[in-house]
Design a protein that fits this description.
It contains eight helices and no strands. It is mainly alpha-helical. The chain has one domain: Four Helix Bundle (Hemerythrin (Met), subunit A), CATH 1.20.120. Helix 1 packs across helix 3, helix 5 packs antiparallel against helix 6 and helix 6 runs antiparallel to helix 7. It is globular and about 55 Å long. The N terminus is likely disordered.
């Protein structure tokens, strides 16, 4: 129990630091503290991190893996983070500059609220996938040291990468929550990078994880049933 609690607290520390930095960046770019869409995004982010904690707090091995992945991380996954991280920051900055400071575009309130619902739905799917998959690492690798097997539970019965489905939803919804149409540009670029990661990871799993090729024959689609 002490190990679970200690790991859970360590999992919250980086998340708390990140959301505080995100809020500071949003308000700094907006140039004002009454940017309500920025505060809305902040509270949705807090909800996501609390959900993240609840989803895996009883899985100390997964928490350890996500905090410090083992050996074998793929080079192209490092490239993914090298691209997606600055794109996320650009999306935050552009959205806050647009909606908070300059008003280049105007997102109606109903669309901001709709975007918030999509954001929450996406995060719910993401956390559902993380909760049922004990090998939901932060980096892509074959976890031989942890005896990795194919996850076929929950949303994995519908598509092969439900975590990425959720990530796509909340990524595209984020600039709408922030009240910016211009923010959709870096968000959509992030979407293409994420689809590339999905493609590479799926091929890796087919070639390197026993049982995944048969699972892929049964669950045919990676992200969208009937499409891909």
């Amino acid at each position: 129990m002490k190990k679970k609690t200690r790991l859970g607290l360590w999992m919250l520390i980086p998340g708390t630091s990140i959301i505080i930095l995100v809020l500071v960046a949003i308000l700094a770019c907006a140039g004002r503290t009454d940017y309500w869409q920025g505060w809305l995004f902040f509270f949705l982010t807090i909800a996501g991190y609390v959900g993240n904690y609840l989803a895996i707090r009883d899985k100390p091995d997964l928490v350890s893996e996500r905090l410090k992945p083992g050996k074998g991380v793929k080079w192209w996954d490092m490239l993914y983070f090298a691209l997606s991280t600055p794109l996320f920051l650009i999306m935050i900055g552009v959205s806050a500059l647009d909606a908070g400071r300059f008003g280049w575009t105007t997102v109606p309130t109903w669309l901001v609220l709709f975007g918030s619902l999509v954001y929450l739905a996406g995060y719910a799917v993401f956390l559902w996938a993380k909760h049922v998959n004990s090998y939901f690492s932060s980096f892509v690798r074959i976890q031989k040291d942890r005896g990795q097997t194919v996850c076929t539970e929950g949303p994995y019965k519908i598509v092969r990468h439900p975590g990425y489905v959720g990530a796509i939803l909340y990524t595209v919804a984020s600039p709408l929550v922030l009240g910016s149409f211009w923010g959709l540009v870096p968000a959509l670029l992030t979407l293409f990078v994420l689809i590339g990661r999905t493609y590479m990871e799926d091929n890796m799993l087919k070639n390197e994880l026993p049982g995944y090729a048969k699972y892929a024959q049964r669950v045919r689609y990676r992200l969208a049933p009937g499409i891909w």
